[in-house]
Specification:
It is a single chain. This protein is mainly beta and 233 residues long. The chain has one domain (17-222): Coagulation Factor XIII, Chain A, domain 1 (Distorted Sandwich), CATH 2.70.50.70. The protein contains two helices and eleven strands. It has a five-stranded mixed beta sheet, with no helix packed on it. Strands 2-1-4-9 form a four-stranded antiparallel beta sheet, with no helix packed on it. A hairpin with a 5-residue loop joins strand 7 and strand 8. The longest helix is centred in the N-terminal third of the chain and has 14 residues, at 2-15. The N and C termini lie far apart (50 Å). It binds copper (II) ion. Copper (II) ion (CU) is lined by residues 13, 16-17, 88, 163. This is lytic cellulose monooxygenase (C4-dehydrogenating). Residues 1-16 form the signal peptide.
Length: 233
């Protein structure tokens, strides 16, 4: 029985890798094709995740910049289309980074302490101790809201899903992510923060990265998503 369960887990892991090639804003796909405003990632074909949260790839995992810019009204609800079912357990997080003056969105690399978090997710557990995460097993990522107070301008928008099924071992959490070139319109005069660098914001030993989900299933509210607090505007 145990062997059979292990085999099933392994088979699931192979099929489960995914990429996020298209942004959806208020229910509408804003890219006419994959990797249009979203920067094509190095795993576009392999779908392989990143296991080292301090590697340079943790920022955007990008193979190339994108040609286009997507318009995202402040206050809108966003998610990404996933190429496969997001069937690993783990949180979905979103970050924004404003392009510095003098830099161009279609070529800026997102370096420096420029990233703030605008969304994260937590697990829930049902009466039979079965744990699920928002959008788990869907062909899309969980929703987030771009805070209405976000100032107008050009940003990189970063989506991240952290697969925690093997995360009780060091450097075995898997990061699936992408960055999209976006122009935020109709925004406010907020001061987003805290601002962090990527890489820099995560360590392999963060309690939300090196984590035993069997323990989280006993107390789902104790999960600590890695990175800074969410800026709500
Ligand atoms: Cu996988």
């Amino acid at each position: 029985m145990q062997l059979f369960a292990k085999f099933l887990l392994a088979a699931t892991a192979v099929q489960a890798h995914y990429t996020f090639p298209r942004l959806v804003v208020n229910g509408k796909a804003v890219e006419d094709k994959d990797w249009s405003a979203t920067r094509k990632t190095k795993n576009a074909e392999s779908k392989t995740g990143i296991e080292n949260p301090t590697s340079g790839d943790i920022r955007c995992y990008q193979a190339s910049n994108a040609a286009n810019i997507a318009t995202v009204p402040a206050g809108s609800t966003i998610h990404y289309i996933s190429t496969q079912q997001v069937n690993h357990p783990g949180p979905t997080q979103y970050y924004l980074a404003k392009v510095p003056s003098g830099a161009s969105l279609t070529s800026w690399d997102g370096s420096g302490a420029v990233w703030f978090k605008v969304g994260t997710t937590m697990p829930t557990v049902d009466a039979s101790k079965q744990m699920t995460w928002p959008a788990q097993n869907e062909y899309k990522t969980a929703n987030a809201t771009i805070p209405a107070a976000t100032p107008d301008g050009e940003y990189l928008l970063r989506v991240e899903h952290i697969a925690l099924h093997m995360a009780m071992q060091a450097n075995k959490a898997q990061f699936y992510l992408a960055c999209t070139q976006v122009k935020i319109t109709g925004g406010g005069s907020g001061s987003p923060g805290p601002l962090v660098s990527l890489p820099g914001a995560y360590k392999s030993t963060d309690p939300g990265i090196l984590v035993d989900l069997n323990k989280i299933a006993q107390a789902p509210d104790t999960y600590q998503p890695p990175g800074p607090a969410v800026w709500k505007g």
